[in-house]
Design brief:
The complex is a heterodimer of chains A (83) and B (539). By secondary structure, chain A is an all-alpha fold. Chain A is built from three helices and no strands. Chain B has helices spanning 2-24, 29-34, 41-52, 55-68, 71-102, 107-115, 119-150, 181-229, 233-242, 257-262, 269-272, 274-280, 288-317, 329-337, 340-354, 357-374, 378-382, 384-408, 413-439, 445-468, 505-523, 529-535; strands spanning 162-167, 170-175, 481-482, 491-493, 498-500. Chain B is mostly helical and 539 residues long. In chain B, 54% of the residues are buried. Classes of the chains: A mainly alpha (83), B mainly alpha (539).
């Protein structure tokens, strides 16, 4: 992972965290999505999807390499043991 | 009667899964305690998620939403959907790697090896075990209460049949149940004990996977049934909007902004719960974490969104319930609005969440056998088989003690619920200790000791302050009370919390723990080069 990717992902994580504090929705219930979901609840439902996208980005671009190496090493070892 | 039968079928299936897992397993300690580190991607995701879903996620969330509105989702669920997968990504994966590399099973084993300490590890064991015990007791209590509620004798009109009861010289009308609290709690304890005893981690993981799938499936079906029965949710919401008493429930007006912010520290507790940390050791491959981390926020949304929403809808359907009564609004919604068989299946699913104490019992037994029995020479002296049987005996012992306490202190459930609430803060405040161990070479055992002492002192202090100020707690909707007027708003009492300038104590506990970890580590000798090289290899 390059230092630029690291910086971008850190910034993204901070932005997602800050977006959780949606003070602008505090006392509002309108618009009602689908006619019955208050805006504050709809916002946080979408937020959950955004959190999932952030996690996907971390997995895709910031996955710790040593875990894969350890996994490969383990696989090699168990193959040798099987032989 | 039908819901009771459905629950019995469910308990039988769960028992079968546990015994089936026993047949698949081997007799080694690693197999019993961490399923030979062999769980596949989906089982790992669903069982880890199921382990985290306690009765509170279902019963408590809707009960709280009934009182405080839709903001409960943002307060607890979406914050957890952000923080918990992050901790799994940064901490869970590392714990898994340490376990694979060095054979650790518990957090304390890792701390002892990482900082070359014995007694500090024992202290961490004692603190975490003490914070885990109330969960096990509440699990048995919840099982008894749920079975009792589901087996209420109904009259021909579909409402609870009331019987005359004379209590303290007064004649009261009360419902009766096919299964009493005592028998229900005993049954749940027996089933949980059996599949944990036989199946160990494999049995527990499979049962949790089954429970999660069941809840997600039938929960969705029930949500649509309820909507259909009510003639659509829009009419209910319109009525809530029109009533000035219920309109704030559709906003976050009943949740102070400071509480909302400081609550984001609470989900740090998840990875510090021993049963979650141990669960992280069970994955077969590191790649299992990829799916878990990505899908975790969506799984939380799938469970919490309907629960919180139905809690608010219940405020329109059953107005005027008191805080204690509001806890079972989800059960009321099911009974009133779905077919009796579906209510039974959902009841079974709710039982599943109540029975989340399985992994906590197993975690406590794993900690005891690994951190005490094996560490103090038991494994060396008596062998691995004896270690597994000690673990099994411990499972039986813990369950029996939990059951006896649940029966004896039936009316004191509030104390254990309170202890659990405080335990969340305690576990969250231990997170800096784990982060320091994993990512900071210079961290020392003395720093860890200082942080743990800070956690214990502040936890007991905030618990005491909460209890001591019970009589000055304002009613919901009223402004907070100053606890010590001489220091202004420093300590405030709200209806459900003690706060520091409006912020929950957990925030200061976490920040304080990090501070003590840093300060004392810097003031004490660095850990040995050998330990640092072992855990932070140069290549």
């Amino acid at each position: 992972m390059t230092s630029r990717t690291k910086l971008l992902l850190t910034l993204l994580a901070i932005v997602v965290y800050l977006l959780h504090q949606d003070c602008w929705n505090w006392t509002k219930f309108e618009p009602l999505f689908f006619g019955f979901v208050p805006v504050g609840l709809a916002y946080h439902a979408v937020y959950s999807v955004l959190a999932s996208v952030l996690m996907w980005s971390l997995v895709k671009f910031a996955w710790p390499k040593h875990l894969d190496e350890l996994e490969a090493q383990e696989g090699k070892q168990s193959k040798e043991e099987a032989k | 009667m039908i819901p009771t039968i459905v629950v019995f079928v469910y308990l039988a299936v769960v028992l079968y899964i546990g015994i089936f897992a026993f047949r698949k397993g081997s007799s080694s300690g690693e197999d019993y305690f961490v399923a030979s580190r062999s769980l596949g991607n989906w089982v790992f995701l669903l069982s880890l998620f199921g382990t985290n879903m306690t009765a509170f996620a279902i019963l408590g969330s809707s009960g709280l939403a009934y009182q405080r509105g839709i903001g409960v989702y943002g307060l607890m669920a979406s914050a957890s959907g952000f923080v918990i997968p992050l901790t799994i990504f940064f901490i869970g994966t590392r714990l898994w790697a340490m376990g694979k590399k060095f054979g650790h099973i518990t957090q304390v084993q890792y701390f002892r090896d990482r900082w070359e300490c014995g007694h500090i590890g024992t202290l961490i064991f004692a603190v975490t075990a003490a914070m885990l015990v109330p969960y096990i007791i509440i699990g048995v209590m919840g099982g008894g209460q749920t079975l009792e509620a589901l087996s209420t004798m109904m009259g021909p009109d579909g409402k609870p049949h009331l019987f005359e009861v004379v209590r303290n010289g007064q004649t009261l009308m009360e419902p009766r149940h096919w299964i009493s609290y005592e028998v229900g709690g005993g049954l749940v304890a027996l089933v949980v004990m059996s599949y944990v005893f036989f199946g160990g981690m494999r049995g527990t993981a499979w049962v949790n996977t089954f429970q999660t799938i069941m809840f997600l499936t039938f929960g969705t079906v029930a949500f649509f049934f309820i909507s259909h029965n009510l003639g659509g949710f829009d009419k209910i919401i319109e009525a809530l909007v029109a009533n000035p008493k219920t309109q704030p429930l559709l906003t976050r007006a009943r949740i102070p902004i400071e509480e909302f912010f400081s609550y984001t520290f609470i989900p740090l507790s998840s990875i510090m719960f021993p049963h979650i940390a141990i669960m992280c050791m069970t994955a077969k491959k590191a790649s299992a974490f990829k799916k878990t981390v990505t899908f975790y926020p969506l799984c939380i949304a799938a469970i919490w969104l309907p629960c919180v929403f139905l809690g608010v809808v219940a405020a329109g359907q059953f107005p005027g319930l008191k805080p204690g009564e509001a806890d079972d609004v989800i059960l009321r919604m099911l009974t009133e609005n779905t077919h009796v068989a579906l209510a039974g299946v959902l009841g079974a699913a709710i039982m599943a969440c109540v029975m989340a104490s399985d992994s906590q019992i197993l975690a406590l037994c794993t900690m005891f056998t690994e951190d005490v029995f094996a560490y103090y020479g038991g494994k060396q002296r008596f062998g691995e088989k004896a270690q597994v049987w000690t673990g099994r005996a411990f499972v039986v012992g813990v369950t029996i003690v939990a059951y006896l306490i649940a029966i004896k202190l039936k009316d004191k459930a509030g104390i254990f619920e309170l202890a659990i609430r405080f335990a969340f803060s305690g576990f969250a405040a231990l997170a800096p200790v784990m982060l320091a161990a994993l990512f900071w070479k210079r961290s020392t055992k003395w720093g860890a000791l200082a942080a743990v002492v800070w956690v214990v002192v502040t936890l007991l202090g905030s618990f005491w302050l909460f209890e001591a100020t019970a009589n000055m707690a304002p009613k919901p909707g009223q402004p907070p009370t100053q606890i010590f007027p001489a220091v202004g708003n420093l300590f405030l009492r709200t209806p459900g919390n003690v706060t520091i300038y409006g912020y929950l104590p957990v925030m200061f506990m976490v920040l304080g723990s990090a501070f003590w970890m840093w300060l004392v580590s810097m003031l004490t000798p660095a850990p040995s080069a050998k330990a640092v090289e072992k855990y932070f290899p140069k290549n």
